[in-house]
Fold:
Amino acid sequence: MKKIFTNLFLLATLFLASTNLTAQTYIINDNGSYEVMNGWSQSKTKTFTISNPRPCDQLTFDNSQSTDWWSPATGGVTVTATYTDGTSSEIASGKGNGSHSINLNRKIITSLSFKGTGTLTKTISNVKLTMATYAD
Structure:
């Protein structure tokens, strides 16, 4: 009987090892909501600093902006990434309301800055940055 359980355990272990089960690892998993431009069209910047930079897979966030009956909002939200070598680049620019997803191709990022542009209120929320995983 012991031999049957040992064989079943080994078979289950081999099966799980061969399926490459991986969980999503979040570098940033923030469900908060942040105003990056107020109703007076004054821009603000929300920066997420990554204390332990690792290769990144994907950035997702939601963007919303107000509209007035007399004047629709202009502009949107820009996202700037800073890398381990100190350089920065704009990696996304979101306009209107909706969800955004940016593939980061394993770049190592030390911070992400979200900034409102244009007019009226802009808000970001549900900012998630996933760590790149390596499949065997």
